[in-house]
Amino acid sequence: MIPRIWPSVSIPEVLILLSLALLLVIYRALRVPSHLRHIPTVPLWPLLYSYLSGEVEEQRVKRLVLPFAKAQGTDVVLMYCLGDWMVQVVEPKVGKRLLEDPSMRKQQQPDDMLLWRLIGRNNIFMSDGETWKRHSRIMHEALRQTVPMERFVSLVQTTFDIIGDGGRVCWSELSHRYTLDAVATTVMGYDFEALAKPEGSFVQKYHKVMAAIASPAYVAFPSLERWLPRRAVRAMVDDFIGDFCTILDEKRRNPGNDVITYMFQEPEMTQDDFRDNTIVLFIGGHDTTAGALSSAVYFLARYPDLQEKVRQEIFAVLGNEEPRIAHFANTPYLNAVIRESMRYNTPTNVTVPRISDNSLAVGDIVIPPNTPIALNMAAAHHNEEVWRSPGAFDPDRFLRNAKDDANNWVSFGVGPRRCPARNFSLYEQRVLISMLLREYRCTLPEDSIHRDHLKNGFSAFALSLPEGVDIDFARIASSNTL
């Protein structure tokens, strides 16, 4: 006879004990570590509610993070984020100083999140040290050789074919298709025909993968992937990665004038390097620029006087010529509109966390070694201590106080780790907006869900991606008349 180890306990009592044990585990996981309790801490329960309800980053920043930081009079706050306690910086100059500290390095991210499984670790975004320097050199050189203005112009013409003589267009969806084709054809040398075939298999697969990853509960608590693994989603991610590997194989056989072909010329790059850099450039270069374009055209449509001012400048500088890089040195107001749009609705809201082996000081607050630190760019761009009337859309701020505001503008990150494709993105935006305003007038519909303010969809990458932005377009009678 087998002896009973447990005393006689009823099933309800067992369930109670297991529930108490689970609550104890959760309590210990969510408790602020003792060595960080001196740092002003954003209240946990409102934060968890925000995560689990699917509130987007920029709204959480405006509703919770910045009011708390202002009340505490601090430039850094401690937050529970991505399953860890993290210091987030809400002031751009402090962020630059901390993240450019020579002792800082990227924090190794846990394997739990499918987000990291998708983009990998062997890329310019996630690597560090000598590996990052090598990737950075290669990426900058490849992108420098491929600023494809002619390709941007061609894709804009295809976009005009879709808009036709005008009418209502879901601009947020169309801008995603435009940027997907721009990145795919110039970075990968591969045409997904997202503009021509929006229901194409790759485009649909990409959206399904991103939607599956972006589960609020799994983003807030990455360890759920260990407790309740999403095997079907993991298989979907792996299948998507396999598609990129197939494209790389094809590109080896058929090189062209694209970033991948330039990468193949580097003998130190491995297959994992090629794969991970291709994926991260594709996702980063596509989604972030699509979000920026959705925002910029929304603001132009919402403010007709501003739109007309930009149009006047574009006709004065470009006339009816195809856009060239040299043109945009003489379009200060267009450039200011793009900057202000990227400030107001920052495409990427938070930098990858970094850690240091040393203690770091911000005023009277000492951040202990090995504490994750990130710059919250959305908070930095809406901080009332930094910007005058940050809730107002005011492109003139970049013309009135160009130097000061340019130093506080961190939409592409800070320091040497700024986005390597920033010029690619800016020229992509300039070409589309300049050509669009020569061809069409844009109006925000009276029944727009964005009538009062721009609304973003939930993103596992903490991106600002407006959804359902309908714009009414009306073709200008003649390209020579305003």
Automatic annotation (TrEMBL):
Pathway entry:
Secondary metabolite biosynthesis
Keyword line? Heme, Iron, Metal-binding, Monooxygenase, Oxidoreductase
UniProt: heme binding residues? C419
Cofactor or coenzyme needed: heme
**Mind telling me which Pfam families this protein's record contains?**
p450
Single GO molecular function:
oxidoreductase activity, acting on paired donors, with incorporation or reduction of molecular oxygen
Say which family it is in: Belongs to the cytochrome P450 family.
Q: What is this protein called?
A: Cytochrome P450 monooxygenase
